Every structure is written in structure tokens, then in C-alpha cells.
Amino acid sequence: MRNILPILTVVAGIVVLWYALAVMLNAPWAYAQAKRADTTLSFGEMVQHTMAQDKPRLPAPHQVATEIWETTAEKKITSKRSLIYHGWITLRATLLGFAFGTALGIGLAVSIVYFRVMDMSVMPWIIASQTVPILAIAPMIVVVLAALQVNDIVAKGVISMYLSFFPVVVGMVKGLRSPDAMLLDQMKTYSASASQTFWKLRLPTSTPYLFASLKVAVAASLIGAVVAELSLSQNGGLGARLLAGSYYGQTIQIWSALLSAATLAALMVITLGVLEKMTLKRMGMAQ
């Protein structure tokens, strides 16, 4: 309860602020409608009007909640109007990109730690790669992979990988270099090979760093999947819902897709947090 109370307090504050902004941003349209009808709105009527507009500038929280309920509980999950249907498409691409990014990130981190030439030559390029906007390169990746007849889900995974591998590289390099110099010297006195030092010392020591970076990577992977769906919107996904909502000015649909993506990211981070606790406890490293 002590952990949940601060979170609920922040959520309540956000909801109150959200309602206030909805009234402020939607009020001009309410007054314009009243002026056309040659009527005058009281403050209460104006607030009521801002809470029920079909295409508000900022939908009220209850409008978004209603949209999420109608597109999840009241729709078949096979329906293209279902958020679960689109969420599943995004989740598949996210997990694929996360798997690609994790494998690539760990591979690069091991190479950087064990080979100085990789540290000197590749690391600067890895950092520089993150300065290129994903929105700029996503369409190019889609075109190239389409020419190679690569499946759309794999193309989305590749774009997700671009964002998710970086935190894994940084976290794992720091983790693999974290063992104390005395412990490394001790491994040398045992005549341990590089492989034995890796499996018995460096990898276990890097586990907390790995999980911390995986939590960032999975959220970045979701962002990459949503961005990829803006270019590959024909197969659906939360990104496609965002795009369709922007085309038709359906702000309620946009916000429901945004909150669904945020919820999906939170669930994946929580799942990784549980796995982290279980793993560290089993390794005797839990605090």
C-alpha cells in the first residue's frame, strides 16, 4: 500500500490536470457553436459541452476510457476495430525487435569488452547511430526490405531493433566491465581462460545491468514498432490506429491508441521487473 499510494496520487493529479486542459482547449469550439446558434452558455453548460464533443482538441479522460472499453470489451478480438487486435500486431513486432536488439546488443557488448579494436572503432558509430531520427530511416528500411521480399513483421522488428539494441550495448558494456580488478586477478591466478572468466565472473556480475537496460530496450522497441507501423499501416497495429485517427481528426481514437501503447509498455517493463527479481534472488544478488 505504501508503494501504491504515491502512484495513485500522481495518477489522480494527472487526471485532474487532464480534465482542466480539456475544458480550456475545447471551450473555444463550445462558445463558437453557441454563437452560431445565437445562444449564451453558462460556465456549467460550457464545461458539459467540452466533455461531450465528437472531435475535441483534447478528449476528456472518460471519453478515452469509454473508447478503450468499446474497442476492447465490446469488439471481437479478430475485428479490425478492436484495440486488442491491433495491440497484438504491435506486440509481435515489439517482441521480435526486442529479441533482435537484445541479441545484437549483447553480441556487440561482448566484442567491445574483449576486443579493443571494436571499442575504438565501433562504439563511436553505435552512439552516432542514435542521433539519426528513426522517422527518417524507417521508410528507407521498409523500401529496402520490401525489395528483398522480407516479411512485414520482420521489417517492423528490424526497425524496433534499431532503437532497442543501444541501451543493451551500453548497459552490458558497463556490466561486463564492472567486476573488481582484484576478482579478475584472482581468476588469472586460477589460470581461468577468457571463456571461464566470462561465464563465471563477468556475465553474473553484469546481470543487474542487463535487466536495467532491457527495461529501457523493451520500451524503445515498442516505440520502434509503432513508428514502423506508420510506414506499414496496411496490416494494422497501434501505429496504424494513430495514423488513421490523425487522417480523420479522431482525437479520441488517437488517445486511446496512445494509452494502449503506454499500458503495453508498462506491462512488459513490469514483467521484466518480476523476472529480474526472480533471477537475482536465485543468484543470491537480490537486495
From TrEMBL:
State the name under which the record lists this protein: ABC transporter permease
**Pfam families for the chain:** BPD_transp_1
Under the heading SUPFAM superfamilies, the entry gives: MetI-like
Which InterPro entries does this UniProt record tie to the protein? MetI-like, MetI-like_sf
Q: Where in the cell is it found?
A: Cell membrane
Question: Where is this protein chiefly located?
Answer: membrane
Task: State the family it belongs to.
Answer: Belongs to the binding-protein-dependent transport system permease family.
Segments spanning the bilayer are: 7-31, 95-115, 122-147, 209-232, 252-275
Keywords of this entry: Cell membrane, Membrane, Transmembrane, Transmembrane helix, Transport
Instruction: Classify the protein's membrane topology as the record does.
Output: Multi-pass membrane protein
Which residues belong to any copy of the ABC transmembrane type-1 domain?
87-276
Protein origin, superkingdom: Bacteria
